[in-house]
Write a structure and sequence with these properties.
The complex is a heterodimer of chains A (402) and B (437). Helix content of chain A is 51%, strand content 19%. Chain A has helices spanning 4-13, 15-46, 71-84, 131-135, 168-174, 237-251, 263-270, 272-306, 308-316, 321-357, 365-391, 396-400, and strands at residues 57-64, 88-93, 104-109, 119-126, 139-142, 151-153, 163-167, 184-187, 190-198, 214-217, 219-221, 225-232, 255-262. The chains are: A alpha+beta (402), B alpha+beta (437).
Chain lengths: 402, 437
């Protein structure tokens, strides 16, 4: 009924055009399925949950050059001023800022250094008891630091910090049995008791090998260079950010306030390359599909003009319009299927190559399948309009010139 | 003849405007996409200092004990410890060498006219300027004596000089950095650097520092690094002196080795140095290891060109392949339709060669127009790239090489696509078409 045999025979007589189309479809399938996979990968990376109300948090840097003050005292004053500012929920001096791409990491060990034992990489912040409230994260077990547990110093003293609050990811890695709360871990040779657990918060690097491992250590060492994190009430961040420089300089003027940035802005900067890659790939596959569709469209038009007489003759001999349309559709479907078969193989090979040379994960077959179906539908759509035009060729054409 | 062929091509272009336009569009889009990704790749991998990139070597020493690992591909730390840097710097060897580190200060003047701001500083030795080919607008580098005595001197960039001193010769003026005043000894000319190859620790496309100061100030002023400090074992370093003596790595080190002999001599020296240090209980390993990488090797080793860029370039060329197949199809259609005309020309005495050439010229013309349009599209693409990523602003441009290669690639692609159709059409047997006229 679909007359595949004669169509196939006709195709064999003008191979080149068909082969070209076949190659186009194959490469298109290979590129689109692989690119779609990378795009999907980036989208889920960019939209991942960070655990912070990013829209309400911002940070700024303080660089003090005046030497006529005690830095620790000054920061106490600054913090209480900030916390009282209208619109501010809480503020804290933080040794690093989440999602910013800059920070410190070390390892937490089950045994004190230099003894060997389980050792887990983690990022850490030196921050005070306002950490949880400032970053708006959820304490799911245990308790917050008390004010007494926070060590504030500018000097080297014998007094040492002895507690920590960690993320659930870090706790589970240190104590897979889930009994870590209250245990002692070692930061170098410094013992720290785990007193609280945070459900989810990301560290400074989203691309770290352990992006979810983060620990708060209650220790404030005031230095001439410091970073402060501030959480505001929803919708009031922009206003507070605008006032912050003046407010800080009014408190003490011999310093520079800069890098006033929202957490979402920091995240955007950190992920800029990934967003760029995603956008470029989206542009690339969109245009690619359009070009391939255009190619099919052009080639069908050309075939039709070449076969005008043949079509007219068929119509004169009694072929219905639908038979003409279906002829072109079937022809296209034949080429397309062959192209897709080749395309699936190419896609798998390309995926393997990307996996081998770059850190791209294995291409799931579902991406190839979906792409193949989409390309097939697209090719049918591209053929439909020219085929309908062909169907409208009048039978008289066939009889007019012989 | 060539002009005549061009004229014929233009007529043919006008005769089938739609198909011709589609072809030009296909090639333009293909070139536009390819050139966008290729330009970024090209700018990222371009040699930042071609005249001496093979003479400047980044020095790495394997300081870790056996059994410890680093994340680099060859397990070598990227930077040096302070003590190694100082020892190598003071070594009695003749080559130029430089140790350095990035830090920063609040910058202000003794007046209220300029609001204090943060300035990035490079703590380095005086050879830095001649090694990396920096030129001075005013003054010059600090002297060896000033370096040795940790003198409070500073070289500033033209931009800072414009900002603080309105572009006037500021040599001898004082500027305040944190709590100390420093004397300006030199102003360097604008240093346009796309890739900060001399210190890739905090991103390859970061800005060059604004202040350059003696390396010896690190010790004198207890300056901490604004770049990376990494350790591989647990060390207690409560004081700055402890940190200077520790095994933490945080100093970049480069040597200028102009000849093979010089390089060999330096390698020998490094080995001897490590052996001597072994006697003091450091470098606890069976095999002593060092690495000298020149600028281009260093950039490659640090993955300046990201994976994403390589993938994009690869996919773009595949994309160009699709465009090529597309054009081939359209050309085939266009040329074969013209077979009767070709038949007449052949009958009138045109040789196959001439027909072939005529069609190639036509194809090349399409390629040229497509290439030009492609450059316009690539510029749009690069504008988008530049806007989406601050660091890319300088990189997202086409230099002369790229501008010239765009039409070249376009024409080559088109001629490749045109070979088969042109060959097919020149084989046309004139008799058939003459009969049916």
């Amino acid at each position: 009924m679909l007359e595949i045999k004669p169509i196939f025979n006709a195709l064999c007589r003008s191979k080149v055009g068909a082969v070209l189309l076949l190659i186009q479809i194959a490469i298109t399938t290979a590129i689109v399925s692989n690119a779609a996979f990378i795009i999907q990968d980036r989208i889920s990376y960019l939209n991942q949950e960070t655990g912070y109300p990013e829209q309400d948090i911002f940070k700024f840097n303080v660089m003090t050059f005046g030497t006529d003050i005690n830095l620790s005292q000054q920061f106490e004053l600054d913090e209480s001023m900030l916390r009282k500012m209208p619109g501010v929920v809480d503020a804290a001096l933080s040794s690093s800022i989440p999602l910013s791409g800059g920070g410190s990491a070390s390892s937490f060990n089950l045994k004190p250094a230099p003894q060997e034992g389980l050792s887990v990489r983690t990022a850490y912040f030196f921050i005070d008891d306002h950490a949880i409230n400032t970053y708006g994260v959820n304490l799911i077990a245990g308790r917050n630091f008390t004010e007494d547990e926070v060590l504030v110093t500018n000097e080297i003293t014998q007094k040492r910090t002895n507690v920590t609050i960690v993320t659930k990811a870090l706790l589970d890695e240190l104590y897979p049995d889930g009994d870590g709360l209250g245990k002692i871990v070692y930061f170098g040779d410094l013992p720290l008791k785990i007193i609280g657990v945070i459900g989810k918060m990301k560290g400074p690097w989203l691309k770290d090998s352990k992006p979810d491992n983060l620990a708060f250590i209650p220790y404030i060492k005031a230095a001439s260079y410091a970073q402060v994190a501030v959480r505001t009430k929803p919708g009031q961040r922009a206003a507070v950010m605008k006032e912050i420089e003046n407010a800080m300089l009014e408190n003490y003027s011999k310093r520079v306030i800069n890098n006033i940035k929202g957490l979402d802005e920091l995240k955007n900067e950190y992920t800029a390359q990934d967003r760029l890659m995603m956008r470029m790939l989206i542009v690339l596959i969109t245009i690619l599909v359009l070009i391939t569709a255009l190619g099919i469209f052009g080639l069908t038009l050309f075939n039709i003009s070449k076969r005008t007489k043949q079509i007219g003759t068929r119509r004169a001999l009694g072929a219905r319009k639908s038979a003409i349309v279906s002829y072109f559709l079937v022809e296209n479907a034949l080429i397309c299927s062959l192209g897709l078969a080749l395309g699936v193989v190419t896609a798998i090979l390309l995926g393997k190559m990307l996996m081998q040379y770059f850190s791209v994960a294995a291409l799931p077959p579902s991406y190839i399948a979906v792409t193949a179906i989409a390309v097939f539908l697209m090719s049918l759509l591209a053929v439909l309009a020219p085929a309908k035009r062909a169907a409208n060729i009048s039978p008289s054409i066939a009889t007019r010139t012989i | 003849m060539f002009i005549h062929y061009l004229d014929l091509s233009w007529r043919s272009f006008k005769r089938t405007p739609l198909v011709s336009f589609l072809m030009v569009l296909a090639i333009a889009i293909g070139i536009g996409i390819t050139m966008t990704s290729l330009s970024v790749y090209h700018m990222m991998s371009a040699d930042p200092i071609p005249e001496k990139s093979s003479q400047l070597y980044s020095v790495q020493l394997q300081t870790m004990d056996d059994g410890s690992t680093w994340w680099t591909e060859d397990n070598m730390p990227l930077q040096l410890t302070y003590q190694d840097a100082e020892n190598l710097l003071n070594a009695p060897t003749s080559e130029k060498k430089v140790a350095m580190m990035r830090t920063g200060f609040s910058v202000y003047l003794d007046s209220d006219k300029i609001k204090p701001f943060i300035g990035n500083a490079r703590m380095t030795t005086p050879d830095f300027f001649s090694m990396f080919n920096l030129s001075f607008l005013y003054g010059g580098a600090w002297s060896k004596e000033q370096e040795d005595s940790a003198a409070p001197v500073v070289v500033i960039t033209q931009e800072i000089n414009d900002k603080l001193f309105a572009g006037k010769n500021s040599v001898g003026e004082l500027i305040y950095l944190d709590d100390t005043s420093y004397q300006v000894v030199g102003v360097i000319n604008h240093w346009p650097l796309n890739i900060k190859y001399y210190d890739l620790n905090n991103g390859a496309f970061n800005q060059v520092e604004e202040l350059f100061m003696p390396f010896s100030l690190i010790k004198a002023k207890e300056l901490v690094s604004w770049g990376n400090s990494n350790g591989w074992k647990h060390e207690n370093t409560p004081t700055f002196a402890d940190k200077l003596q520790s095994e933490q790595v945080w100093i970049q080190f480069w040597a200028e080795l102009n000849t093979l002999e010089q390089k060999q001599a330096y390698q020998n020296y490094l080995l001897a140095y490590m052996q001597e240090q072994q006697k003091r209980g450091r470098f606890n390993r069976k095999e002593l290891e060092y690495k000298l990488r020149d600028v281009n090797q260093w950039m490659q080793y640090n993955n300046v060109v990201t994976e994403d860029n390589k993938i994009l370039v690869g996919l773009s060329f595949m994309f160009l392949g699709v465009c090529l197949a597309n054009i081939l199809g359209l050309l085939l259609a266009k040329f074969l339709r013209r077979a009767p005309e070709v038949g007449v020309r052949r009958a009138l005495g045109a040789s196959k060669r001439q027909i072939f050439l005529q069609h190639l010229v036509e194809v090349a013309m399409l390629g040229f127009i497509g290439g030009m349009l492609g450059i316009v599209l690539a510029q749009l693409g690069l504008m988008g790239v530049g806007q989406s990523y601050d660091y890319y602003e300088n990189l997202a441009t086409m230099d002369l090489t790229m501008l010239l290669s765009a039409p070249l690639i376009a024409i080559t692609t088109c001629i490749l696509a045109g070979l088969y159709p042109a060959w097919l059409v020149c084989k046309t047997n004139p008799a058939i078409y003459l009969k049916s006229q």
